Amino acid sequence: MVGYDEAIYREVLEKAIDNIDEINAAVDGICEKGYKNLYLVGSGGTYSMASPVTYLLKTHSSIPWYWEIAAELVKAKPVSLGKDSVVITASLSGTTVETIEAAKYAQSLGAKVISLVGEDGCPLSECSDYVFENKKASNDNLVEEIYIQYFAIAARFMKNNGEFPEYDSFMGALKKMPDVLQGVREQQDAAALEFATRHKDTPFHMCVGSGNVWGETYCFAMCVLEEMQWIATKSIHAAEFFHGTIEMTDPEMSFMLFKSEDETRPLVDRVERFVRQHTDKVQVWDTRDFKLEGVEESVRPLVSPLVMSAMLERVSTHLSILRDHDLDIRRYYRVVEY
């Protein structure tokens, strides 16, 4: 397949899995000393990557949690953030200014900071209490490797809280992801190429998702189509589609529907039933289309975000090639002062 190195992809995912033992030790230590709440904090893509973790916590745990955009956290100064809080964040470069500021602010209050980075020693790691690095991580594999570690962190907190009986099955599934996700990319490649060929010149897309793939919906619309391809998009939660966005439906509108296997899937099904009555430009990306060899049926919904990410990487790559617009090209982001 074009656009990425399979050997490096597997190596990066294996490294994320290798970090789990250290993650467990860190979380166990935090739990032994006690904590009050979890803050999942990010900027842009890393903010969206925390979304599936918040959904896992919401549906499987009683641990208090907060999901925050880094820059807003620093300005808003949430009253529940303090010395008994644990902040979990990520930055591949470790130089994202807003995330660094949030980590420094959290530490100034006595909170513990856990960071996922490309390389230890970066500015973010210098203001973190626990750092987990993955030196060969890149934009080709960033989301999946962060998901593995994010999920491992949250799952360990839940297990130590006497919750999440699915822990062992879930961790077993995460450890199978190098083979599983490589298979997903291979199976998705032809469909992604067909979509990219059909839509390389489409000027606007409506991206609709829900549940634990809402973060992927948001991220693909903003970080890929807008940031990396300069294509106008709107990401809309399926539960909100019928409260305004419905009026944007017409025969020329392109819809991408992102389907997981969790409890909220009927929300996207409802949107699909409606939009198919009014336009032929409907693309469904569905994690159910993939076998996921070795993953227990009961935990398939929990790994849907990783599957969706692997699927969408193929779409991103083929769009960039057919549009002759490299995914690394930027006009403004980290190019000019703002």
The fraction of residues assigned to DSSP E strands is: 15-25%
Q: Whole-Å distance between the termini?
A: 37 Å
Number of domains: 2
Within CATH, the superfamily of the largest domain carries the name: Glucose-6-phosphate isomerase like protein, domain 1
| CATH topology term of the largest domain | Rossmann fold
Instruction: Give the number of helices.
Output: 12
Q: Give the % helix.
A: 40-55%
Give the number of DSSP strands: 9
Shape, per Cα inertia axes: globular
Radius of gyration, taken over Cα atoms and rounded to an integer in Å: 19 Å
Which structural class best describes the helix and strand composition? alpha/beta
List SSEs in N-to-C order.
HHEHHEHEHEEHHHEHEEHEH
Widest β-sheet, arrangement of strands: 2-1-3-4-5
CATH class of the largest domain: Alpha Beta
The major pleated sheet works out as: 5 strands, parallel
What does this 3D model show about the protein?
The chain is of the alpha/beta class and 338 residues long. It has 2 domains: 6-175, Glucose-6-phosphate isomerase like protein, domain 1 (Rossmann fold); 178-322, 3-Layer(aba) Sandwich (Rossmann fold), CATH 3.40.50.10490. Helix content is 46%, strand content 15%. It is built from 12 helices and 9 strands. It has helices at 6-18, 20-33, 45-49, 51-60, 70-76, 97-108, 142-160, 167-175, 177-199, 214-228, 265-275, 304-322, and strands spanning 37-42, 65-69, 85-91, 112-117, 130-133, 204-209, 232-237, 254-259, 282-286. Strands 2-1-3-4-5 form a 5-stranded parallel beta sheet, sandwiched between helices. The protein has a 4-stranded parallel beta sheet with strand order 7-6-8-9, with helices on both faces. The longest helix is centred in the middle third of the chain and has 23 residues, at 177-199. The two termini are 37 Å apart. The mean pLDDT is 97. It holds the Pfam family SIS. This is SIS domain-containing protein. Residues 26-163 form the SIS domain. InterPro entries: FrlB_SIS (IPR035488), Fructosamine_deglycase_FrlB (IPR024713), SIS_dom (IPR001347), SIS_dom_sf (IPR046348).
